[in-house]
Fold this protein.
Amino acid sequence: MRLESNDDSIMSISKCDLPEASKALNKEDIPELIERLTLRDDKIRYQAFLLLQTRSSFFDDIYPYWDTFRNKLKSDNSYQRSIGLMLIAENAKWDTENRMEDTIDEYLTLLNDEKPITIRQCIQALGKIASGKPGLNDRIASRLISFDLMAVKETMRKSILLDILNVLLLIRNEHNTDEIESFILNALSGEILDKKSKKQVEVLL
């Protein structure tokens, strides 16, 4: 695939074709897609992100742009923060230089983001980091357990708690602690989750 200078070839890729299109990218395409992540055009920027995210699930050649993604974590733009956190999570499994060790504290600050959607994306992405970097499981679990649900809108609390539980259940499979067990039991006996949500969690247990 060659993107050339126009965006038509990017936008013509359907969602179901993303895996094959991402596999077909060549060396020249990747830096051009990285540049497109900063565009104001939502559609082109998002399509570039999807191609890079999908490519990252197959190959390690997006990993060299780690610092670019890390810088986005501190962006004033919430879209850029989201792009940064999700591409870092996708490349954690390729992290042969242990950059995640230096990045994790900055990453976890996004749990206090002003945008609830960014908080949710951060928590969900921590599942991928936990899988790719099991050595960070304690730090991730500790931070999630101490998350202040009362600090977010009431309408978001159930969704965020379920996100947290999904990551903790994943970590629990490899590394169970009394703190994780206690948090899960408290969530199941508390009032934030409804009966349906509690049953979903109990099935995963």
In short: The radius of gyration is 18 Å. The CA atoms of residues 188 and 199 lie 9 Å apart. The chain has a mean pLDDT of 94.
